[in-house]
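Look at one record.

>
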Amino acid sequence: YAWVCQERVNIAAVCVMLFLTGFLSVWTYTSILAYLVDANTGRSSMAVAMNSSIAVPLQDAIGDGGLYTLWAGLMVIVECMILLVLYKGRSWREASVEREKQKLDHGSNPR
């Protein structure tokens, strides 16, 4: 988005990039926030606060374009991870439940 604004291209490109950036940012943030709350039972407010307070002042050092490029790269990685969980999560969960059953079965059968 920042490269498009910096290069002063057509307003249509700016609007498309603004939409994509906003949509993907919200999708990523809500997914991460939901995970943080679920994974940190009893201390979820601390996890959310830490997530919100982590900010690195790179903008002056690398400029708007560089900062947003870095952010876009991180978003692409996170989006891919979310899609991976979306497609493989059920099988991972089922495998985990099966492993837990096996552990419980071995634990209840004394040798």
Notes: The chain has a mean pLDDT of 80. The first helix runs from residue 2 to 6. Helices lie at 2-6, 11-39, 44-53, 59-108.
